[in-house]
Write a structure and sequence with these properties.
The complex is a heterodimer of chains A (929) and B (417).
Chain A (H helix, E strand, L loop, with lengths): L1 H12 L18 E10 L4 E8 L8 E10 L5 E11 L7 E2 L2 E2 L7 E4 L13 E4 L1 E4 L1 E9 L2 H6 L14 E4 L8 E9 L6 E10 L6 H23 L13 H5 L1 E4 L14 H14 L3 E4 L11 H19 L3 E7 L8 H5 L7 E3 L6 E5 L4 H18 L3 E5 L12 H11 L18 H26 L6 E6 L12 H4 L4 E5 L9 H18 L2 E5 L5 H13 L3 E3 L2 H4 L3 H4 L10 E3 L3 E5 L1 H5 L6 H17 L3 E5 L5 H5 L3 E5 L6 H12 L3 E5 L18 H4 L1 E8 L2 E4 L6 E3 L11 E7 L5 E9 L2 E11 L2 E6 L3 H4 L19 H13 L5 E5 L4 E8 L4 E8 L26 E5 L4 E7 L7 E2 L1 E5 L2 E6 L7 E8 L7
Parallel strand pairs in A: 3-10, 14-15, 14-23, 15-16, 16-19, 19-20, 20-21, 21-22, 22-23, 25-26, 25-27, 27-28, 28-35
Antiparallel strand pairs in A: 1-13, 2-12, 3-11, 3-13, 4-10, 4-12, 5-6, 7-8, 9-10, 17-18, 24-37, 29-32, 30-31, 30-33, 33-34, 34-35, 36-39, 37-38, 38-44, 39-43, 40-41, 40-44, 42-43
Chain B lengths: L2 H8 L1 E3 L8 E4 L2 E4 L6 E3 L2 E4 L1 E6 L17 E5 L2 E8 L2 E9 L4 E10 L6 E9 H4 L3 E6 L7 E6 L15 E7 L5 E4 L17 E6 L3 E9 L4 E12 L21 E6 L18 E4 L5 E4 L11 E4 L6 E6 L3 E10 L5 E8 L2 E9 L4 E10 L3 E8 L2 E2 L1 E9 L22
Antiparallel strand pairs in B: 1-7, 2-3, 3-4, 4-5, 6-11, 7-8, 8-9, 9-10, 10-18, 11-17, 12-13, 12-14, 14-15, 15-18, 16-17, 19-30, 20-23, 21-22, 22-29, 23-28, 24-27, 24-30, 25-26, 25-28
Classes of the chains: A alpha/beta (929), B mainly beta (417).
């Protein structure tokens, strides 16, 4: 009873602000909470304007009033959509619910003959005052000044009240009781935008503010509870690898033609054996069955084709000592599934548009009848076929606008106490700034995870050893569909599809990306695997080598599988389950930072990958660690920890990081790290400000020069950077100059700004880098036929690497004394400390693409490494070492010499071409330092 | 009468090619009742055979996976089926002949290594039919955008074994006096990630003496199943008159053909209507319908249509292309109970005895069939409707899964001979 009453109360409190009468007053007469004057924005730049809303801003309308124009020598029309405004890092659509945000004018005006001249007098038509390019663009005039425009006989606006001002409502995008900020943006590629005034006003009329505050607090409390319960540290369960060891080592191969397979080629056990035998003979250890991929398209074939097929392929695979993973999409169907859709009320199983209730081509994972139908069938197939593992895809919601079915709405209310609005024009829906929408999205993620957990529970009733595999294409950016994160808590093999079609060309990215993935995989003790998409045989061989160097199992594509036949069964591979990364540097990857914003969250990933790519190139050994696993004890293992634009640092991480530095650790913090609170609200200043001894003053645009004594000056400019968000520096000031030392400055327009600041904190050191070096070095996968779109600053990576080496100094455990150019290595250590594995990749024939060069597949040459390779293993006692390479028939003994407390490893010249593996046996007493 | 018995009564078996082939004639079409596929259009041979090979088997001498000429012929009325077998590989090919169209439906099933990565099925056309003939083609990969192109078939001016058109879905052959269209994708735009054993690409080429309409299905390395359907129609029938030209993607839902908010207020400027239209509606007796406005509720649920006098049925006439749609209705009244009411479509009740309590939200979806360009909805009882949405499933011409079967002849053991 109390629960019901609470629910009703909360639903009552959920009455939206927008439904209430609007204040008749002039918004510019409302109290002003933020203000900026005379902003002159160069093309494609922006200016941040901060303001703080009081707690009682709940329930009040908030507007931004802007007086702006695009500079020109003479008035020439009211037609320039140059102005855009982001709020708290999020882009702004043109409407708030069912009405325009633009308050003081219509959405479009008539112009032309007849006296209504708002643009060129010789034209006639209508002019949109709002354009939507994803984000709204607000029309401003071309003019030398507002006054000149208003005075122009040809171009002055007619029929507009108060034409000089643009008043935009932002009520739904701001946080009460919080710092907020606007980014006033000039989206024009060639015009200068002048904003004479930018002012933020808050409606003085309060509308149930207390109730709104209570509602917001209650929603946020529920969010925190559910988030911790399902995605927090308490939800992190590491199960022993027993029973799934094969997943760490698997060489996985499709039995036929991936998802397009019709499952028609096997009718008898002999058919299955004929298909399995050559795969087993080549050394593959597991089969991925992906045929008839969207199984709910093929329900009439479940009994007649799919079940017998799975039974036979499993039997043949098990006879051959292979495992089988069944891989399919669960809820999606297409035209072949329409008869089933329209039969027996299955239409009622479909996901619904939250706004309109309309169905889509996906069944709802929360529909009890659908779940029962699927789970019953899956369990029967498991019982009769004996499948070893599953990869079930698309267990998600088709878009952010789905699923508004009655079951989802009911379950959401039951589990949270809140009700999602029904009205399609509710500003709650699809509004990432609204706490109820945030809660709804969290709940959807929970339900995705729960579906997989329930599926696994059903399957394990038949096969307790069965497990889930999972993959996603991109992990570094926020995903509207939820991405990998909900599933990792119940998946035991986690892989990834390569996004590069030229992995050799993108080797920096590929290895950095695998490092990033290992961050999450290691947090869960899951088995990592990789699916590369090489286009040539030599690229296929290089991909195999990268899998070894990244300690990954591999899903092989059939297209080039023949080129790696000899490698699959190569006997000297490391047993991957036995090894873990051996690195001096750790970079923290934060799911919370990544997901804090759909629009800017991915800059955390880009900054992470960009630093990683620099370290890969420079052979600086690093490891990504996931925020959920961060503890002081984990951080202590590393000589250096990097927080790459980690905007949201939760309390557990903050404490761990603080303890790490206080106790002597070295920390690098970059760009906007720590500028969000745990509720994803912006902070006015750095969360780690005390440690860093810094205050944030402002953001300034590139270009600027990075000046560091002893280093070549680096020009940081937007032309050599794809993502303009990174083409900025943060202007900071030292709180206590005695505590810090500026080791690099940023020079802009004749002025020097602190660029890299070294601060002592406790026994440790914090470096703050006031820009986005990682973003300036970021590249991702390329595709054949296009150009290299990832413009990079070629000076960034050498600068980063040199500086990191400067910090590490003699603390870098494994360093190259003598190594050929373009030989990449990665280091791994046996979990019992008895062996070091050093993987070498020959990228001698790698070269950067020209500016207009088209990406093409090519056969890659791997010239013989004809010089000896000598590495210094600091503080390590090595007994002996042997070098193995598929390029040579016999193992090659290496020289291990003592050098004081260190060991010096030398691999003879001529030992490898493409790939080699040095296995260094460590003395019992002297393993890893 | 069971289908099998009907076949038994109507079927004529032909075990070997006739010396003077019997033909099945309808309108401009004439098809030989033989294992070979021979189709004449306006007296000229348009198709002189077909081939089942693995991809890369473009050359004439490549080994056949199944040879249809040795197959068994079954005739049922205006339908000819050929069942061919070669080892365990099989072909089922059905030709239905009407004056309006010829439907060629095929399914080949192959076991073991095929020698290629794809399976390939060719329709063969004599050079004399196509040489110098202009064409208009609609092309595009399954998930790619639809494009159009035009050209002329010419053996002399093109290289043998080179594709003349890539990824075609549809052709108009502008042979003077014998224009016709070839629809290689009669089930409409692909709504899926891949073809799953269906023809995903038709790439015509010539071998020096004949033109081949090459069809492909991925996944033939170890055999599998490849099926498809080609519809040949007289005249220059445009693709767009039969099919949707909207983009089709894996992630898209059913396209919205009509979205109506029954309100006096103009449609809001928000994103309420995110899709293109295609259908329309009107009340047959608008004077018997009134719009009730409520002060709150937001679009869709604030205002609603209901009977003007509390008694009359509301008849909503819907117009649009014939085919299958999904109808979603939204009902809500913040102030009064609603119902019971029933909504009836052309094939019977869609929603029966619906009651919606004051303040409750009700939305349901039912399939609705448009025939002859429209359908009629009748609202009876104490009815209200706030919003209506129509989403297209399949146009009538594209329907080979719901009302119209993929195969026209029922055969109990289609792969046995």
């Amino acid at each position: 009873m109390r629960t019901t009453q609470l629910t009703l109360l909360l639903v009552t409190l959920a009455a939206p602000i927008w439904a209430q009468p609007q204040s008749p007053e002039d918004p510019q007469a409302w109290p002003q909470v933020g203000h900026a004057e005379d902003l002159r924005l160069a093309p494609m730049t922006d200016q941040r304007v901060g303001f703080t809303l009081a707690e009682d801003a709940d329930g009040r309308r908030v507007v931004v009033a802007i007086r702006a124009f695009a500079e020109s020598e003479a008035p020439s029309g009211y037609n320039h959509g140059a102005l855009a405004v982001d709020v708290n890092g999020e882009i702004m659509g043109p409407h708030l619910g069912d009405r325009p945000r633009l308050l003081n004018r219509p959405e479009e005006i008539a112009f032309g003959p007849g006296g209504e001249r708002s643009t060129a007098a010789w034209q006639e038509g209508r002019l949109g005052l709002i354009e939507s390019w994803g984000s709204a663009r607000w029309t401003v005039a071309w003019a030398p000044s507002i006054d000149a425009w208003l005075a122009s006989p040809d171009y002055r606006p007619v029929g507009l009240d108060d034409p000089a001002w643009i008043i935009i409502e932002i009520t739904d995008m701001v946080y009460p009781a919080s710092f907020n900020y606007l980014n006033v943006k000039n989206e024009s590629p060639d015009a200068v935008l002048r904003c004479e005034t930018v002012a933020v006003h808050v409606d003085p009329e309060r509308r149930g503010a207390e109730a709104d505050r209570r509602r917001r607090d209650a929603i946020e409390a529920t969010y925190r509870r559910l988030d911790e319960q399902h995605f927090g540290r308490s939800a992190l369960v590491r199960e022993p690898a027993t029973g799934r060891e094969w997943a760490y080592e698997m060489d996985l191969i499709p039995n036929n033609y991936s998802a397009a397979d019709t499952m028609g080629e096997i009718e008898t056990i002999e058919d299955a054996r004929r298909i399995v035998a050559p795969l087993a003979d080549q050394g593959y250890s597991a089969i991925m069955v992906s045929g008839l991929h969207m199984r709910y398209t093929w329900v009439p074939l479940w009994e007649s084709r799919i079940l017998p097929y799975m039974r036979l392929i499993c039997q043949a695979a098990h006879e051959a000592g292979m495992k089988v993973i069944d891989h399919f999409d669960v809820p999606i169907f297409y035209s072949g599934g329409y008869p089933f859709l329209l039969a027996d009320n299955h239409l009622g199983w479909t996901q619904r548009d939250i706004r309109y209730g309309t169905p889509t081509r996906v069944y709802c994972i929360n529909n009890p009848d659908f779940r029962n139908h699927f789970f019953t069938w899956a369990r029967r197939v498991q019982r009769e076929a004996g499948i070893d593992a599953y990869q079930i895809d698309e267990v998600s919601f088709q878009t952010r606008h789905h699923c508004g079915c009655q079951h989802c709405r009911r379950l959401f209310t039951e589990q949270t106490g809140f009700e999602l609005p029904r009205q399609p024009d509710s500003p709650v829906l699809n509004n990432d700034a609204d706490p109820l929408w945030q809660l709804w999205r969290l709940w959807q993620s929970i339900s995705m995870q729960q579906f997989k957990r329930d599926f696994l529970t059903e399957i394990r009733k038949e096969n307790p050893a069965a497990f889930l595999s999972d993959y996603t294409t991109t992990y570094y950016s926020a995903s509207p569909g939820g991405g990998l994160w909900p599933s990792v808590f119940c998946s035991y093999a986690i892989g990834k599809e390569g996004v590069s079609r030229v992995p050799f060309q993108n080797y920096h990215y590929c290895i950095a990306d695998r490092r990033l993935y290992h961050g999450i995989i290691d947090a869960f003790d899951s088995a990592p695997w990789m699916l590369w998409y090489p286009l040539t045989g030599s690229a296929g061989r290089f991909c195999w080598a990268m899998s070894q160097a990244c300690n990954d199992a591999q899903w092989h594509v059939k297209k080039v599988a023949g080129s790696v036949d000899d490698l699959i069964s190569w006997p000297h591979k490391t047993r991957k389950l036995d090894f873990e990364t051996f690195a001096d540097v750790a970079m923290v990857f934060s799911e919370k930072s990544k997901s804090a914003s759909l629009w800017t969250g991915h800059y955390h990933g880009m900054e992470t990958l960009g630093w990683g790519e620099a370290m890969v190139e420079a052979n600086i050994q690093y490891h990504n660690i996931h925020e959920i696993a961060v503890t002081p004890q984990l951080l202590e293992r590393y000589k250096l920890v990097i927080l790459p634009r980690m905007t949201l640092i939760d309390e557990a991480n903050r404490r761990a990081i603080e303890a790490y530095v206080r106790d002597g650790g070295t920390l690098i913090v970059t760009a906007e790290t720590g500028l969000l609170d745990e509720a994803r609200r912006p902070l006015e200043d750095f969360l780690l400000g005390e440690m860093m001894n810094l205050r944030l003053v402002d953001f300034r645009h590139a270009p600027f020069e990075v000046v560091k004594p002893g280093c070549p000056t680096v020009t940081f400019d937007r032309e050599r950077m794809l993502y303009k968000h990174g083409a900025r520096m943060l202007e900071v000031e030292l709180v206590d100059p005695a505590r810090s030392r500026v080791i690099a400055t940023f020079r802009k327009a004749g002025r020097e700004y602190p660029g890299i600041i070294e601060t002592t904190y406790g026994s440790g050191t914090v470096y703050y880098v006031a820009t986005f070096f990682g973003v300036s070095n970021f590249e991702m996968g390329l595709h054949e036929g296009g150009t290299d779109i990832f413009r990079r600053n070629p000076d960034s990576a050498p600068f980063m690497a040199a500086w990191l080496r400067e910090i590490l100094g003699d603390a870098e455990t494994i360093t190259a004394i003598k190594i050929p150019d373009k030989l990449v290595y990665t280091t791994w250590i046996k979990r019992d400390g008895s062996e070091l594995a050093i993987h070498f990749l020959n990228v001698a024939h790698h070269r950067p693409l020209g500016p207009e060069e088209i990406v093409k597949r090519r056969q890659i040459s791997f010239p013989l490494v004809d010089q000896p390779i000598t590495l210094l293993l600091r503080g390590m006692e090595a007994a002996d070492a042997t070098f193995y390479s598929p390029d040579t028939t016999d193992p090659v003994p290496c020289t291990v010499a003592r050098a004081g407390p260190d060991a010096r490893l030398t691999i003879p010249a001529g030992s490898m071409k493409m790939y080699g593996l040095a296995r260094v046996r460590l003395n019992e007493s002297g393993g890893a330092p | 009468m069971t289908a099998a018995r009907r076949i038994a009564l109507l079927t004529m078996l032909v075990t070997a090619p006739a010396i003077a082939a019997e033909t099945l004639d309808a309108g401009p079409f004439s098809v030989d009742v033989t294992p070979e596929l021979v189709l004449r259009y306006s007296g000229e041979t348009l198709i002189s055979g077909d081939r089942c090979v693995s991809f890369r088997g473009m050359r004439p001498g490549e080994p056949l996976l199944v040879d249809p000429t040795g197959g068994r012929v079954i005739r049922e009325g205006n339908i000819i089926t050929v069942l061919a077998r070669q080892g365990r590989n099989t072909l089922r090919r059905e030709v239905m002949v009407t004056a309006e169209a010829v439907h060629i439906t095929f399914e080949m099933r192959v076991f073991g290594h095929t020698g290629g990565s794809h399976l390939q099925y060719d329709l063969l056309t004599p050079a004399e039919f196509l040489e110098g003939v202009d064409y208009e083609a609609w092309t595009g990969a399954p998930r790619g955008p639809l494009e159009t192109t035009a050209g002329t078939f010419s053996i002399e001016d093109s290289e043998p074994l080179e594709y003349l058109v890539r990824r075609a879905r549809y052709f108009i052959l502008k042979r003077p006096g014998a224009e016709c269209s070839l629809d290689f994708n009669p089930a409409g735009p692909w709504v899926g990630e891949s073809n799953y054993g269906e023809n995903f690409s038709t790439n015509p080429y010539h071998d020096g003496t004949r033109f081949h309409f090459l069809m492909l299905c991925a996944g033939g390395r170890y055999g599998g199943i490849f099926g498809g359907k080609i519809v040949i129609r007289p005249g220059a029938v445009g693709y767009q008159s039969l099919h949707s030209t909207a983009d089709v993607a894996y992630t898209l839902g059913f396209p919205v053909a009509l979205a109506v908010n029954f309100s006096q207020t103009a449609a809001p400027a928000g994103d309420y209507q995110p899709y293109s239209g295609g259908a329309s509606c009107r009340w047959r007796h608008p004077e018997r319908v009134r719009i009730v406005e409520r002060p709150t509720g937001g679009i869709l649920y604030r205002d609603f249509a209901t009977t003007a006098d509390g008694e009359a049925d509301g008849v909503l006439e819907l117009a649009g292309r014939s085919g299958h749609y999904l109808l979603t209705l939204n009902v809500h009244d913040a102030e009064e109970d609603t119902g019971p009411f029933t909504v009836t479509g052309p094939d019977g009740p869609l929603f029966e005895d619906v009651t919606v309590k004051r303040g409750e939200y009700w939305f349901k979806t039912a399939p609705l069939r448009f025939r002859d360009g429209g359908a009629e909805l009748r609202f009876t009882g104490h009815w209200k409707v706030g919003a209506l949405t129509l989403q297209t499933i399949l146009y009538e011409a594209e329907d080979f899964v719901l009302d119209r079967p993929f195969w026209n002849m029922t055969i109990e053991t289609p792969h046995a001979d």
